[in-house]
Sequence to fold (191 residues):
Amino acid sequence: RNAARALGQRSDGAAVAALASGLSDSDSAVRNESLLSVVKLTSRLGEKALAMASELRPALTKLSESGLSTESVLATAALSRGGDKAQEERLNGLATTAAPALRKLAVENGGLDSATVVKALSDEDASVRMAAAKVLAARGDARAAPILRTLAASGGALATEAYRALRALGESVTPPSDLRAQLEAGEEAAA
Fold:
């Protein structure tokens, strides 16, 4: 998994070929990490990333057609970010119809159009709403602020993420009341 993560930071054919090989690994964690790295590569390089290794596009296509799973959503996201318009449409659909965890993945990794991301702000699942708000905040879109304020007031890990996103938007916001406790718990876990 660490190797796949490191390969995702590179932008050469050998790294892309190794990631393509990781897509068929017997370990699902390696496949998922390889997919996340390919999504990052296609986010940075677009279609060029898919052209770097001849086996990459067929491997992604096979995974994207494998049903509704983490792997299929990530493969669809990589193909979409690589310029495949049909996969872009499929991903927009997944962002609104799949299981909550898959909707969240589609929103986080898909490079979805703003209308789809804004629609996800009203999702029934808080993690999907948070993902949509973070995507919009990263784009500098203030439509994320109301849901981020609601999540920041809710407490817990989502509140801390919402607080960070609001700060990134340049919003004036009071830190969550349990922020100190979360930071201390994180320091203890790291020790």
About this structure: DSSP finds 13 helices and no strands in the chain. The mean pLDDT is 86. The first helix runs from residue 2 to 7. The two ends are 23 Å apart (CA to CA).
